C-alpha cells in the first residue's frame, strides 16, 4: 500500500498542477513584476534610495494625511495576444440604400475671387450710437461758424407787443424812417427798360419789307406802366400799319402780369382805330415767353393776338429762337381785310449771336399765311396769301 501511494504521488501532484493551471489562465506564465506605487516626492534619478526615517523623526507623524493616489492597476492582459472583438453588425445590412443626391456645383467654381472687394468696414464701428437722434440731420449754417461774432439774445419784448420791438431800442421815429428805406430799396424799386425785340429787314421774292417790334416799362416789381409799339412797311412804299399801346401792368404771380389799357392804330388811308386792351404776359412752363391780348375797338370789333417765343441756347452766345404769332377775329372786318376765325399765322426761326447781352444781331427765316376769308380778301386785290422771307435783324435792350 505504501509503495502504491509512493508510485501514484507524482501523478497526483501533476494532476493538482493541471487543475490549478486550468483555474488560473496565467498559471505558468512569466509575469513582469508590478510597478511600485509612486512616491509623494520622488527623489532624483541619480540619488540613492534613502531608508524611511523612524517614526520619531518623521515630521508628519501624528498628522492625518489624505490617502495617497495610487497608480492604476496593471493590466493583467499586458503582453497577451488578445483576439479582436467581433465587429458590430451593420443595422442597414440587406437594405436597398438610395445613393445620396450629388452635391450642388459651386456657382463660383473656377472664378477668380481675389479681386472681389471685401465688405467695407463699418464707419461707425466702436462708436457710441446710443445718444444719436433719429430726427433730421443737423445741417451746419453760418450761425455755426466759430469765427462769427457772438450775437446777443433777443430782448424779451421782441416776441410781444409792440409789433416793432426795435422801436424800444432805437426809437419809433428812427425805425419808421429805416423801414421806409428798406421797402424802397428792396420791395419798391423803380426801374425802366426799353426792349427792341425785333428790328429787321425781310427779303422776299417780290418785295423787301421792314418792321419794328419794341416795348418797355417803368415802375416797380408789382405795378408798372408798360408800352408797346410795332409796325411794318415796304422799301420804296408807304407805311402799311403801325400801333402803339399804353398799358397798366400788375404782377399777379412771380411769372405773370395782367395788363390793361388802350391801343391806337395808324394807317395811311386814315382809318385809325382805338381799342381797349386786356392781356396777359409772362413766362410759361418750359421757358416760353408769352404775350396774349384781346382788343375791343370803338367800332365794336373784337380781335385777339397770341405771340410766343423760346430761346434755345446752343452756346453761351449763340441762341436759336423759334417764334409763333396767331391772329384771330370774332367777326369779318372787310375794310381791314380781316375775316372771322383764325385770320393769319406767322412762324419764324431766328439765330442770333450775342456780342453782349444787350446787343445781338440775328438772321433767320419767316413763313406767313393768311387763312379763311382773310386770304380771300388778299387774293381779291391781287396779293399773295402765303409768303416766305429771309430776314436779317437786331435784338437789343437798354
Describe this structure in words.
With 398 residues, the protein is mainly β. Among the domains are: 158-187, no CATH class; 191-397, Porin. Helix content is 13%, strand content 36%. The chain contains four helices and 13 strands. The chain has helices spanning 2-23, 167-170, 172-187, 372-380; strands at residues 191-203, 208-219, 223-234, 239-253, 256-266, 273-284, 288-297, 302-310, 312-313, 318-329, 341-353, 359-370, 386-397. Strands 1-2-3-4-5-6-7-8-10-11-12-13 form a twelve-stranded antiparallel β-barrel.
Shape: flat
User: Main beta sheet, described?
Assistant: 12 strands, antiparallel, barrel
The proportion of strand residues reads 35-45%
Percentage of residues assigned to helices: 10-25%
Uncertain segments: 18-22, 40-56
pLDDT average, as an integer? 78
CATH level 1 class label of one domain: Mainly Beta
CATH topology of one domain: Porin
Order of helices and strands: HHHEEEEEEEEEEEEHE
The total strand number stands at 13
The order of strands across the largest sheet is: 1-2-3-4-5-6-7-8-10-11-12-13
CATH architectural label of one domain: Beta Barrel
- The N- and C-terminal alpha carbons lie at a distance of 169 Å
**How many DSSP H or I helices?**
4
Name the structural class.
mainly beta
| Cα radius of gyration in angstroms | 59 Å
Amino acid at each position: 500500500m505504501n509503495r502504491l501511494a509512493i508510485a501514484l504521488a507524482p501523478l497526483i501532484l501533476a494532476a493538482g498542477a493541471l487543475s490549478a493551471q486550468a483555474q488560473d489562465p496565467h498559471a505558468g506564465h512569466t509575469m513582469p513584476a508590478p510597478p511600485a506605487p509612486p512616491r509623494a516626492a520622488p527623489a532624483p534619478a541619480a540619488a540613492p534610495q534613502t531608508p524611511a526615517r523612524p517614526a520619531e523623526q518623521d515630521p508628519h507623524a501624528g498628522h492625518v494625511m489624505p490617502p495617497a493616489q495610487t497608480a492604476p492597476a496593471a493590466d493583467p492582459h499586458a503582453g497577451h495576444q488578445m483576439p479582436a472583438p467581433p465587429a458590430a453588425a451593420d443595422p442597414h445590412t440587406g437594405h436597398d440604400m438610395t445613393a445620396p443626391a450629388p452635391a450642388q456645383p459651386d456657382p463660383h467654381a473656377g472664378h477668380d475671387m481675389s479681386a472681389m472687394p471685401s465688405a467695407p468696414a463699418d464707419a461707425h464701428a466702436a462708436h457710441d450710437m446710443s445718444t444719436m437722434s433719429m430726427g433730421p440731420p443737423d445741417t451746419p449754417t453760418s450761425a455755426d461758424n466759430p469765427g462769427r461774432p457772438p450775437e446777443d439774445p433777443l430782448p424779451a419784448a421782441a416776441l410781444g407787443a409792440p409789433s416793432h420791438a426795435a422801436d424800444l431800442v432805437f426809437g419809433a421815429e428812427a425805425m419808421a424812417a429805416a423801414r421806409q428805406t428798406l421797402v424802397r430799396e428792396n420791395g419798391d424799386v423803380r426801374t425802366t427798360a426799353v426792349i427792341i425785340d425785333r428790328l429787321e429787314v425781310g427779303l422776299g421774292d417780290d418785295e423787301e419789307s421792314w418792321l419794328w417790334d419794341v416795348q418797355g416799362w417803368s415802375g416797380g416789381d408789382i405795378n408798372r406802366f408798360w408800352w408797346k409799339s410795332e409796325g411794318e412797311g415796304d422799301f420804296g412804299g408807304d407805311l402799311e400799319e403801325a400801333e402803339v399801346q399804353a398799358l397798366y401792368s400788375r404782377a399777379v404771380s412771380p411769372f405773370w402780369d395782367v395788363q390793361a389799357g388802350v391801343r391806337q392804330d395808324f394807317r395811311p388811308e386814315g382809318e385809325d382805330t382805338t381799342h381797349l386792351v386786356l392781356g396777359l404776359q409772362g413766362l410759361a412752363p418750359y421757358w416760353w415767353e408769352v404775350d396774349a391780348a384781346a382788343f375791343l375797338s370803338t367800332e365794336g370789333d373784337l380781335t385777339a393776338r397770341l405771340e410766343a417765343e423760346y430761346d434755345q441756347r446752343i452756346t453761351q452766345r449763340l441762341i436759336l429762337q423759334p417764334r409763333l404769332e396767331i391772329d384771330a377775329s370774332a367777326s369779318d372786318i372787310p375794310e381791314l381785310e380781316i375775316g372771322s376765325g383764325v385770320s393769319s399765322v406767322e412762324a419764324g426761326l431766328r439765330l442770333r449771336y450775342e456780342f453782349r447781352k444787350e446787343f445781338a444781331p440775328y438772321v433767320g427765316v419767316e413763313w406767313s399765311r393768311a387763312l379763311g376769308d382773310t386770304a380771300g380778301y388778299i387774293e381779291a386785290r391781287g396779293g399773295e396769301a402765303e409768303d416766305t422771307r429771309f430776314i436779317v435783324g437786331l435784338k437789343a435792350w437798354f
